[in-house]
Design a protein that fits this description.
The chain is an alpha+beta fold and about 100 residues long. The protein is built from one helix and three strands, in the order βββα. It has one helix at about 50-80, and strands at about 10-15, 20-25, 30-40. Strands 1-2-3 form a three-stranded antiparallel β-sheet. The protein is elongated and about 55 Å long. The model has no long low-confidence stretch (mean pLDDT about 85).
Length: about 100
């Protein structure tokens, strides 16, 4: 079965006082998923707005991707095809010596 679908992503950027915020909104036609990202310019750094835009947008799109994967995992679980359980990360410090 061949199928073609187009999803639109809109990216909104807001900058104020050295902080850039981004919102990435995915519209699937039946639902929307939104990711958020922030970038802050350090007082010691040269203020280059384009870099803040890139960082905030990248973080918003990364967050959007994570949310979309979470939605897919929930949809799979609803069909009885949940992905295998995620392994817990190893503890840090002295706790792992006791294992």
């Amino acid at each position: 079965m061949a199928r073609t679908v187009e999803w639109a992503v809109r990216l909104y950027l807001f900058e104020e006082d050295g902080t850039t915020k981004a919102r990435a909104v995915l519209d699937t036609g039946t639902s929307t998923v939104t990711g958020h990202g922030t970038a802050r310019c350090s007082p010691e750094d040269l203020d280059v707005p384009e870099i803040g835009d890139e960082l905030a947008a990248g973080r918003a799109l990364t967050g959007l991707g994570r949310l979309l994967m979470r939605v897919a995992d929930q949809d799979l679980a609803g069909l009885g095809a949940a992905p295998p359980g995620r392994a817990r990360p190893a503890p840090y410090g002295w706790a792992d010596a006791a294992l």
